[in-house]
Amino acid sequence: MPHQPFLAPSSAGKSMSPIDRSVLELCQCHGISRRRFLEFCTAVTATLALPSGYAQVVATALSQKKKPVLVWLEFQDCAGNTESMLRTSHPTVEDLVLESFSWEYHETIMAAYGKAAESALERVVREEKGKYIVVVEGAIPTADGGVYCTIGGRTALDIAQEVCGSAAAIIAVGACAWDGGLVRSGPNPTGALGLQGAVPGLNVVNLPGCPHNSANTAAVLVHYLTFGQMPALDPLNRPLFAYGDIIHDQCERRAHYDAGRFVEEWDDEGARKGWCLYKMGCKGPEANYNCPTVQWNGSTSWPVKAGHGCIACASPRFWDTKSPFYERLPHPAGFGVDVTVSEIGWTVVGAVAVATAAHGITSIVRDRRSSEPTANQASEKTGSKEQQSREQR
Amino acid sequence: MATPITPACTPDGLAKDPERIVPIYVWELPIRITHWGLVALLVLLTVTGTYMHSPFLTANGSRAWVMGWMRFLHELSGFLLIAIFIPRIYWFFAGNHYASWRSWLPHTARQWTSIKSMVAYYGFRRRKPFEEIGHNSLAIFAYIAVFALVAVEFITGLVLFSAVEGSRVLRALVGWIPRIIDIQWIRSAHFLIMFLLIAFFIHHIYSALLVGISEKNGEMESIFTGWKFVPKRLVDEVSDAEEKGTAPRRKPGRRPVRGKR
Q1: Domain boundaries, chain B
Q2: What is the tens place of the pLDDT at every residue in A357-369?
Q3: What is the CATH number of the domain that holds A156?
Q4: Nearest to B105 by CA among B242, B201, B197, B228
Q5: Nearest by CB to B54, which of A249, A279, A346?
Q6: Which pTM was predicted?
Q7: Same-domain status, A335 and A364
Q8: Domain extent at residue A387
Q9: Is residue A93 situated within a structural domain?
Q10: Starting from the edge strand earliest in sequence, which strands make up the sheet with A204-207, in order?
Q11: Do the Cβ atoms of B54 and A328 come within 8 Å?
């Protein structure tokens, strides 16, 4: 049974509520040793690309009792980011970092429902104005007044504008909340957009990926708890520590790429030997993420390690731009479904070659046919040879 | 195919004969070097680029570094390709008439006649190609297209290079491009243009052969030696046309006619 660490209702007994405890105390509660806690602090310091001396700062911050209020909004989504965070077989320190926040609202896992649930959100916006953290999961539809996603009679757009507008910090988790993800991919009937697109002007920290990696989300929250601000961002508002490098440069199969050893077919010898998945359409060379170093499921594995190419799930509009996932390049629009760039290119070259050959043959035939009568005429009219040769030019 | 016959074989008659063949130094050394440099680099870029798109060699041995070499050569020759355009562009201004930017702009009546005549020639509505010493004015359009395609290859190549090897300067120059056009479409364009350059390669060799055979002016040899052999009449025609043109006067060549001296 999955561990369910979150959301003791805020009305529960205060002494037993997780929100009263620091991350360190929560660890001790769950039988996680202080050594393991310090290991986590070191690891998250490394994940954030901070100097190692900051591990102590992180440990001190996580030992103190802070309980920022956190609300989690779900819009057009599959709850995959929630699942990514919840589906841990045993509690990790990352989970407990998340648990140390006061989770006031999360549709999937909160006990309250209906009016009571919505009033909890209203209360946070009213009473904690400018102090709470909001995490957004899922895209926001904008077509037809945003009617394609409504919660409690309000559109997603309306809720996002109100709740995000008065938040201290905003985190968009997953591809959908970032740039619309699957929901926005063509033909996008609901006019879905990511949070930044739907509500312009917000200071959003994007944690794209399908789903987000909860280790990165925990690291962002640790950064916030420790320093009171969000980590450094790239031009797409993704934290540099997680999205600063391409997968390809961190990949454990990279040496096979440089050597020229590639998997040609699934389950061939190369696949069994762990060779590079480049020819199977791996998008590692155009994907920015830290999967190879942080990995998934408690640092067990990640897609390329498990034998499947990267699909660049943390790249902009990846459903549209990075598919087909098992081919090197996208198929250009307007040429039919299965036509590749190579086929278009070779067709152009072939057409030019054929046209050239046809032109060459026609020229030869023409010259052969015309050479005989010209020679006859030339012998008859020797006086006008020069004039004739000029006419031909 | 009638060949011009000289009316008299005396030295005096030969000197006056407008149809006498004179050697002309057309392609100066910088032009020939940049031309063959372009050929070598484009061939190297095509081979390595094709491998990088779809590796066709199987690496063997524990010390293999095939993709590493291919990428190294591709990136190196890409930058050399950019570098080789610098002397070529300089030679637009410093070179002789046939290398000058003026010959690349159709600004004289003769150039427009040349374009129309060459269209007619390729369409089999004319027996002989329009006589030219340097580039024919229709071919200029093909070269402008090729220069433009190579320029797109520069830019897309730099974008792809900056994604893996981002220096700050390079990111500042081209880093904004993949935020507008996705990197996969940039990569597709970079790849597709290779085919257009291969198509140009076929056309270029063919048309040079066709015109060279038809004109018998040493067209194919000229890109190795620099010299072409044309009637004296044509030299005068070209220099008259340039004087009548809208552009400032300019001599047809730096070392125009060997036969004159």
Answers
A1: 19-56+65-244
A2: 999 999 999 888 8
A3: 3.40.50.700
A4: B242
A5: A279
A6: 0.84
A7: no
A8: 347-392
A9: yes
A10: A102-106, A69-74, A133-137, A169-173, A204-207
A11: yes
